[in-house]
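#onboarding

Welcome to the new folks! Below is a worked example of what a typical request in this channel looks like: someone posts a single protein sequence, and someone else replies with the predicted structure as tokens. Don't worry about understanding the tokens yet, we'll cover that in week two.

Example request:
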Amino acid sequence: MTSLTRRPGRPDTLHKARARAAANPVDSSWPLRLPEDLHGIRADWKQPAVVCADAAWAARAAGV
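Example response:
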């Protein structure tokens, strides 16, 4: 991750977004909630990409 992860609250926000995306691979609503999850932490393109990658691996592991 970039040095931007050192901002207060940023790691918690990223963790919550990643957990929500990977928790239920069948739930297709997490992409709609991702902007809300990352709002306020000034996420660059890398943070949403990590969340999407985690969700893709979770879906693959679940056979979705």
